[in-house]
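Recap quiz, item 2
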Amino acid sequence: MFFIKELTHTILLHPSYFGPRMLSFLESKLYSDVEGTCSGQFGYIIAVVSILDIGKGMVLSGSGQAEFITRYRAIVFKPFKGEVVDGVVNNVNKMGFFADVGPLTVFVSHQVGLRAVSLLAFSLSSGLFQLIHPDLRFDSNSNPPSFASVDQIIEKSTHVRLKIVGTRVDATEIFAIGTIKEDHLGVID
Amino acid sequence: MASTSTTELFLPPSFPYPIKVISVDASSDAVIQRGTRLLSYSFVHVPAKPDAQPESRFGTWDSASAPGEVISQRKAKERPAVLVLEDCKHGMQISGLCVLCGKDMTNADYIGFADSSRAHIQMTHSANGPLVSLEEAQRLEKETADDLLKSRKLSLIVDLDQTIVHATVDPTVGEWRSEGAAWKARQALKKSNACDRDSDSSESEDECNPNWEALEDVGEFRLGAETFGLPPGKGKNKMLENEGPMYYIKRRRFSRTWPQKYQMHVYTMGTRAYAEQVCALIDPTGKVFGGRLLSRDESGSLTQKSLQRLFPCDQSMVVIIDDRADVWEWSPNLIKVVPYDFFVGIGDINSAFLPKIEPLTPVTPQAATPPKAAALPITAPTLDPPPSADPAQLNPSLPASISPAEAAQAELTEKAMLTQNSIALEAQVEERPLAKKQEELEGEVVSDEVPSAGESSGGSEATVAQEPTPKKPQRKAALLKNDDNELQRLGKLLDEVHRRFFTAYEGRRTEDPRERPGSSKRRRDSIKPKLAYDVTLIIPQIRSQVFDGVHILFSSVIPLDTNPEATEIWRMARMFGAKVTTELTADVTHVVAAKRGTVKVDAARKRGGIKIVWLAWFTDCIALWQRQDETAYLLDDGTTVSTSAADAVAAAVADEAVEDEGWDGAAQGGEDLTLDAINWNDINDEVDAAMNESDDDEEGEDGRSERSAMSEDDWQDDASSAQSNSSPSTPTRQKRKRMRSITPSSVESVNGNGTHDVLGSPLAKRKKVAAERTGYSKLKEAISADDLHTRSENASGKQRSTDDSEAPAALSSLVSRASDEGMQEGDGDEDEEDEDDDEDDFLARELEEEWG
């Protein structure tokens, strides 16, 4: 999901940059520093929308560098469990496929899970549990490798719609697992 | 279905066994969480104090499993204590996430157990692919196996460097290529122009780079600078840092039918980027490899390749081809190929950090090379890679790149190793080993021409020396050549493996149709190993046919202070089906020797019927997976070929006094006979007697050779001195040796100056033939032959026994007439002639030529 979020970033500026073009340099430094990064807390920082406050520029004693605590507004992307996203397949192997959802890579497994017929509420329905429809079978002889059924084929650079079933957030990385075995998910034309 | 999805829980080994279960706290079918108490037990504790009484203590077992389980069963100690039905077994995980339920697996609970440890097998080609549990790995493999069986394929893992390609970063290649391309363009231009004006084309006969023909299909690409891994800022490397080196890839031709029989994987020690580029070159459509690419970035080890990395459970359908067997730890799936050494002396650019291969001492004396080169035109240049095959060794200025071999154990040095590799690469770029080699080669051609023209006597040897070096007499010599057929040979082997596998498979299936084809269990249970469809059995089976029935005795191959059974060569011999012994037993069929004149060689020679071959025979056999014809490798060839070389030594031989005397005396006797020309009958009798005695005599000789078993060199000198002395009557040993040689006597007799005609020993022949033809003539008149005569006649007697078959009757009659006349003449001027037997010999030959 995308958010517009106010964030801060600390820039240390070397004294050699102190001068008339300092501000523009700070801006470009901010863009290059934060855009495209990922923090566990907020997700991927897609783009800086505006700079709210470039900061005061405190010169640090000792090094002579100036410290700017910059406040800016940015578009961030954080995936959530249950979220439906569109992605592009970038790698297919016999265990499943990887799809790029913007900066995020989602793995969709072809594994057949045997979910217990248990007392737990969410899986009462059946013992079989899958993330890819069983009609789609891995075709190792195809080139490039693909999952194919009679009417559908998933190979590299196919567009798919998928639902995120789980995420794991590191300090600097986000991992996600997806499924295409639900209504309206799968290959999109 | 339920049984497969249950998880077995065992009592942990840390328990103070024996324990006694007091109570089961979680009843059957109960829902349990991680940390739920399952049972309580008691055990007997003996305190550490010496006189303490045993006391009973109590403990509990808390479930360390995932939450939400049902206890269904409880079993005895060795069996799983509890069967738990899990919601999700987390059998496949990716980056700490279960791919099925999407839960985070990295959280460890209070006892330090994290679910991420449940799936730890990496079996995809990519580094960040999913990890699987053993159960899941088996399931996936079975699926793959079923697929492959259905399409009648096996898996084939190929190595890149020196197996199906040869790569270099030497910029010389680029220069040669651009030269060649320019030449080609000129040719094309000329062709188009030729229609317009003919006069011009003949004039501009420009010269093409000699290597262009082989280089034309070399692929090239550039990798980013990061592969060099150099610290930035080294002034002279700036260019390299900017764009990285250009890699030149020479493909080895492999058959297009391989992909029909094998699903091919790449497993290389190169980097990912490199491997991808190479694959793009050799397989532009991606049909062959289809992304099944494993590089050192994913391999997990820089020194080893592991089949388990890709096939964790079942390796029965996998064939590996690689130029190095050590990195695979001599896996039974491996078919070793002869390393591709197209860019001569470059070696493997991606394995500077691998331990050096000590070539299996394929050194043969120069003399033994020609027959070998003739027998193996396919791989002769690649078989014996020059000792400087490694770029690191090639550049003595880089001693650092040798050290990684020792340091390889420490994981920390991994980075250092990579740096070394890149340094070696860089060195290759800078030092241009190929350019040097080409220069050397061109120099060699010039310098070769001179001596070979000069020394006409040693002509045969000079050509011998030239033959193995890759050069063509035309224009400029080419260093690089398209002369590699290794993969064609390999293709046959692969076909054979494939055929055997599926023959066995079909047989098995028709035999027992209910059996699931892919079931690995069935394969393991196979009662009849011959029918088993298992590559790990088929390959060793084919391999062991190479030396089937061969019983090898190594001589001066295995160092004395090592345990022979533990050595590489011993294991190789065993792997290829040979029986190996350390002593000369009755069954020994082959003696593989690294030098002449060892005790074993002599003993084997004495016994006879044993093939005594150079080590090269052995190495060639195991390299080509085919038993080579031994005649090209026989140890005895060396002495005959190196005649001229031995000439010089001949004079120095004084210690064999008895023998020398014998020859001199024999020569003397021969002359005497010629001059006197008497008593042929007597001599004839003696000849006969000698023939009868010959066995004894031979034994005597053998006895002698046994006595001097240690001094094979003496032996050789001996022989050569015999040749250089050109004594008309040759000692017995010399005789036998000659007979073994390939060189026919007739050729030898015409053969020019320095080397005298020993075999013909025309004088003896003449005498003998004359004796036969002339019958009882005036020669009858008795002169008692002295001892030396006897000796000479012994020899000539034997000579006849062998020569009779060789010499055509017509020729011999001619010769006899000639010799008669010669003797008549000899009667007249005997005084002059007895000075020099050489002269006599010369005359005789002249006569022979005149008559026949």
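Residues 84-187 of chain A form a domain with the OB fold (Dihydrolipoamide Acetyltransferase, E2P) fold (CATH 2.40.50.140).
The longest strand of chain A covers residues 2-13.
End of item.
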